[in-house]
Design a protein that fits this description.
about 40% helix, 2 domains, Phosphorylase Kinase, domain 1, globular, alpha+beta, 5 strands, about 20% strand, five-stranded antiparallel sheet, single chain
């Protein structure tokens, strides 16, 4: 099964709708590819990281664990382990790095991640 066919099949099975449009998002500097899957009433993110199955497993398990502890992370909807494909909640256009550097909270992320990202923002702004 191809990646985009899988997205359509999972969206139909889970929510009963086909996506209207799927568009690539800017890269974060890794091998992962992100896509915004758009519907009439909202969107989700599709992640393709087929070269790093162990990393994907960690992403899935850590995300599920943090979410179950009440930590505000994107909801994980579906995972195709053999191919490295995930569907997850779309938190909007602003990246976590941009939010922390601008000190704009996203659903409670600031308190959880601010300590880790602030030094990066400082060095990035200096040059």
């Amino acid at each position: 099964m191809e990646f985009f066919d899988w997205i359509h099949e999972r969206c139909l099975a889970r929510w009963g709708v086909h996506p209207l449009r799927t568009r690539p998002l800017a890269s974060d500097g890794s091998d992962r590819s992100f896509f915004r899957v758009e519907f009439k009433a909202g969107s989700l993110i599709a992640l393709w990281n087929s070269g790093h199955l162990g990393e994907n497993e960690a992403y899935w398990e850590i995300g599920r664990h943090l979410g179950s502890c009440g930590i505000p992370v994107p909801r994980l909807y579906d995972y195709q382990r053999d191919m490295g494909w995930l569907l997850l909640e779309d938190l909007g256009e602003l990246s976590l790095q941009e939010a922390v550097c601008k000190e704009a909270p996203i659903k409670g992320f600031w308190s959880f991640t601010g300590l880790f990202w602030r030094p990066f923002c400082y060095f990035k702004s200096r040059g």
